[in-house]
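## retry 2 of 3
previous attempt timed out at serialization; input unchanged, resubmitting
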Amino acid sequence: MSVDLQRKRDLGKILDDSFALYRAHWRTLLAIALVVVVPVDLIVFGLGLGWLWEGYQATPKGHVRVGDVTDSVVGLVAQLLVVTPLVTAMTVHVVREAGAGRAATTREALRAGVAIFGPMIGAVLLVALGVTAGLFLLIIPGLILAVRLVVVPQVVVLEDRRGGDALGRSMELTRGQGWFAFVVVLVTNLLVAVFTQLLLVPLEYAAKQADAQAIDIVGQMLGAIISLPILGVAYTLLYYALLANRAPQEAAPTPPSAPPPATLPGVPGTYGDGYAPPTPPER
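## retry succeeded, writing output
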């Protein structure tokens, strides 16, 4: 499926094109997410936290267990610094290739994600630190910062920017378009959350009935495999929409045309520097 990435898009068009791209490239998108999510979750949760052999852990209402907090923090770090950056970078590559009229293979997408992983994790870490600080100090500034920095991964991949430069570029793209970006992020996440929960609730029930936390890992992996590529596609189309809305401001300046050659008064065919072209021989 070929898609015009340069066209202007509103929320509806971003959603339509996101799901259309997902349907067109679902094999590649699911494959790259599976290759990243399954090993990381098995290592972090299955082996590291022992979920593969533990019984189902249900937290009573009104209680917070230390183990749950630890698991949540470990899982969040793995998600933020490994899974999401890798899957997002690979998804951006798939969308970029679709914009060029090509279908990216799973191998190509994996290579592209691994190649950019170093710069990506550096920029994402800066985003995480900034947003976390904003949330701890005042919740609203943290949320605003999260929206303003939503296209940092796309900037890293598509514009080859690094670290603070990538963050600054995302802030620049969302300047004056913060509400638009916020609505796209909110609606996309709500739709994805509802869809994935419909799949995960039966697995959580099965984990409880079988008293097996391993089933919960399967549900967690399934949710990430399905949701991360959809979000990656939507945020990449958001990046292009933000860019298209700023196109008149960012149009490359037209190079000045060369001035016409000056002539010396009374001497036709001469230039201002005193050079005169040779007179063609008479025939």
